[in-house]
Prior knowledge:
Layout lengths: L2 H17 L6 H16 L5 H28 L2 H4 L19 H26 L4 H13 L10 H22 L4 H6 L1 H15 L3 H6 L5 H5 L1 H24 L14 H13 L7 H23 L1
Helix pairs in contact: 2-3, 2-7, 2-14, 3-5, 3-7, 5-6, 6-7, 7-9, 9-12, 9-14, 12-13, 13-14
Amino acid sequence: MPAETTTKSTSRFTAVLRVARAPFLALPLTLAAVGVGAAAVTGGADVGRAVIATVGLTAAHVAVNALNEARDYETGIDLETDPTPFSGGSGTLPSGELSPRDARRLGYAGLAVAAVIGVWFVSLVGPALIPVVALGGVTVAAYTPVFTKYGLGELAAGLGLGFLPVVGIGFVQTGQFTPALLVTALPPLFLTFNLLLLNEFPDLEPDRDGGRRNLIHRFGRRAGGLLYVLAGGATALAVVTAVATGTLPLPALLALVPFVLFGRCARWALTRPDTDVPTARLRDNVLWILATNVALATGLLV
């Protein structure tokens, strides 16, 4: 193969990875770990099924990332943002490395893979899984064109990349929606909600111009900062309450260890939400969320 052709293929592959937001695909891996931990609490962990479900979840995450990238380019959002490592788009479409059509194809391919795996699991474990698979598909397909326009984007992200993956992955291993499974899925809901919420602050004006109506558009930056802190507090409260009631084992409290990172973000959200979010706080937010998922999974597996 000519060197020029190889270089072009490598460059295109790299562009695809950027549109898929490859560094952020650590999130579904941590969610899968939480689902395995929740299943282990009831003695029903099945690593093989968990791995297959993780492939489907990762494909769904690629889908929502790629479809969001295409939509934000076409509405002009990504042409106006000042990108950070954690917000503002990958810059791949504005640079011309890929077209919106390419991004959309990637998104549809990811959605198809996730759908096939979801349908296979329904045939395997029964129709009780259908609402989880169906609602997950809706959050992926309708996230950018629908939910972000009505102040529901943050909640949709919390459900589609937080609560539902943990419940789904736990269920395909145990065949049960146990109290432990449902309670374990609450912290990831709040965490992913906050992941999106803080990342919206740098893109406030471009998002508004592009037709988005996020929570900070509706209620303002100060209320958004307070909501961020409340969601973080709800994360901790969910874990503590579950342990106190005996629904989760004591080692689940390991999930509270990474909250030192949350404290830094919360300080900014309460005292300086009208200023630019420091990149260090965006980084701390991502690390806190990933680390909390991992710590929670570790506590459950212990």
